[in-house]
Amino acid sequence: MVVRYILHRPTTMRKLQLHLSLHHLQPRGSAMVHCSTITFPANKMFDNMTPEAHPPWNHILFEYSRRNLFQEVLSLFFHMRRSDVSPDSLCLSSVLKACSSLSDPIAGGQVHSYCVKSGHDSGVSVGTALVDMYMKCGSVNDAQQAFHDMPETNVVTWTTLLAGYVQNGCPEIALEFFIRMHEEDLKPNHFTFATVLAACADLGAVQAGSNIHSLVLKLGFSTTLFVGNSLLNMYSKCGLISAAQMVFDGLSNRSSISWNAMLTGLVQNGFHAEALEIFHQMRMDGVQLTQATFTTLIKACADNRELGFTRQLHSCALKTGFASDTSTLTGLVIAYAKCKQMEVAHGLFSLVPEVQTVVSWTAMVGGYLENGMTEQALHGFRKMWREDIKPNEFTFSTILTAAPLLTPSQFHAQAIKAGYESSPKVGTALLTAYVKLSCMEEAAKIFSLMDEKDTVSWSAMITGYAQIGDSEGAARLFRRMTQQGVEPNEFTFSGVLNACSSPTAAVEQGKQLHGLVIKSCLDNAICVSSALVTMYARRGDIDHAYKLFVRQTERDIVSWNSMISCYAQHGRGKKALEVFSELENEGLQLDGITFVGVLTACNHAGLVDEGCRYFKSMTSIYHVHPTMEHYACMVDLYSRAGQLESAMNLINEMPFPAGPTVWRTLLGGCRIHRNLKLGELAADKLMSLEPHDSAAYVLLSNMYAAAGRWEERAKVRCLMEERAVKKEVGYSWIEVQHQIHAFTASERFHPMKDQIYKKLDELGSQLKREGYCPDTNFVLHDLEDEQKEQILAHHSERLAIAFGLISTPLETPLQIVKNLRVCGDCHTVIKMISRITGRKITLRDWNRFHHFSDGSCSCGDYW
Questions:
Q1: What is the maximum span of the chain, computed from C-alpha positions, in angstroms?
Q2: Domain shared by 741 and 847, yes or no
Q3: Cβ of 305: how many Cβ atoms within 10 Å?
Q4: 743 and 845 share a domain?
Q5: What contacts 770, CB < 8 A, 6 or more positions away?
Q6: Strands 841-844 and 814-818
Q7: Cα dihedral 276, 280, 281, 287 sign
Q8: 321-378, pLDDT tens digit by residue?
């Protein structure tokens, strides 16, 4: 028997006829209830009654709720209250479900108040509905209070509470309450397990997930498909693909959800070949493909720039009817864009208006940028605004990350206008863009405004300070980061270690960071181990650097390039070429940086023939096209060896005009070999390209001084004054007891100046007894020889060495850094000091390292 009630606007409160409209009784903000016909099974209690006599309110509410007519449920509830009809627990549960579905905490609070007044809040069903309502409305504290106020709970109540915590981003609290539930000896059901496994997946809590898996097996839920899918999802999100595969293999009755979960887990963890096998197995087993299947696989194709499989999936989606699905089409647009098929991507994007969402617009803009189509990307970005599609944080981060040549300020204002300036993703992209341009002041402002600073944003700032050579700024920021409890990752350590490679950084600082790297178990990360190699090499310890290089479990081209360049800087050219030979056997793709290191090694060791051979092999064997930097290396190689004519011929044969580096290099060679005519040509070219760079003026004036042409030298100095060109002041520094001590020539401000000059006098007497005769040609001033000798004796590197000798124990190695090139006379003196004192002295000048020991230098007097 079926009873049909037809409702319409009441003329009396008890009359139910054709239509019922409750607009005037609805709470503020609710919608008009449209006419509807409600059909539901009869109940014995209504067999002998008429609707006019006693309206079956609960059944009407239940039917509204069953049909998801939640606004009508609320309206009818308030109508009941005005009619003095008292809802029972079943009715109140339905009303609270409506409040949950509508996310209406105000109406929910009103219903809660009625429950308390009527005494219905003590029932399990109403209490559970209250917990669910508050959780779905985001009122976690109210939900927890409602739970604690319940005199009696059951597994459904606990599961509702756990699900609410997970939905509101509190998975760790969900795990705590699950433990309490277990302690109270309340047996979980399959929904409980699914909920708590989702919490483990969100937290990446592998151990907790494994323990819950054991409980699943113990209580016999392992065969429940719902729980099995949750286990599969948990292990996949935690990166334990082998465990996920075992769960998947153990499922006797797999659904399409199971297959898609396994597929998603493989793709998310980078097992793309295995994901392809699963897809083929799905098709062979006749598993029904879903939208999720295509979305997952197309994303994998996009991530791997796999064009062939993208086309196959596109064809399959057309055959199965999923090609018109918005998510699938959006995925295809993204995949084709990343595969550089912009015409195909634009075709799909243009033909289907539904696809033109902020996600696909972002993909198109990013695709244009990745393919070097900057104008089209900017046009697309502006068109988004015109068509009232507001860019999201991914749009801004995409255009800022993929377009480093664009000025960040072009998008900074728009990000502020869109309200994304303080977003972690956009903020990080903005500050990274400013960092690439070395605009650290702007980057720091962005960083200070960010609401949430994650590891990526901290790392970007640290890397920025490292790039501009501010080692102290990078170290200070790293300390702040760790003090605020942010865990550094491999990129953080790489950035701060690169900062410690700076000449001004403290040696002990780098060693302490090395200890932290080992403690964090990140010493095997390629970027970290390569940074450690570079850091030790630049601090003068090339042997320790090589030991770290040998211990690397995995090496990419960056690691090899780093080691080759380090040996080149230390003047160990043959060792650098040995490492290059090992690299050739590895079969890695060589790049331009590799050959910069190789040519520099040949340059510093005077290996002219070998350098020419490697330069020719770049294009003929390795298909690497020489850049300006490679030509500068070759010009330097010829110039240092005195083959200035060959250097000039190479400059004339270059496929592009010579830049400042090339002319500066040639000018340096002319100074060494005193070729004034060619030096004047190189200086003139360099001054025209960089009129405010002091190198051309200083080198040319030094050449005139060495030739005794004091008038020409004076003219160059006058020209410097006219153009406001400042010569860089030469200084040297040494680290003693974790403090940096800097010296300029004839320094008189150091607290220990008296002891330093006394030590210099002692060394001067010893040097003369050993046969030292000052080479006054390195004093480029028109002075008497005695004055020139005094100037030489007080060069900054000698002051730093004297301080090191009186401030450190006997036989302690000394490390000196100089911002300019060491002069020939100082080079001779330091060799003799190393023999007289028995000290090993490492000197790093602007160009290379010199290792002095027992009267000789590692450069072999060729630098």
A1: 131
A2: yes
A3: 12
A4: yes
A5: 832, 835, 836
A6: parallel
A7: positive
A8: 888 788 888 889 889 988 889 889 888 888 767 667 888 888 888 888 878 787 888 8
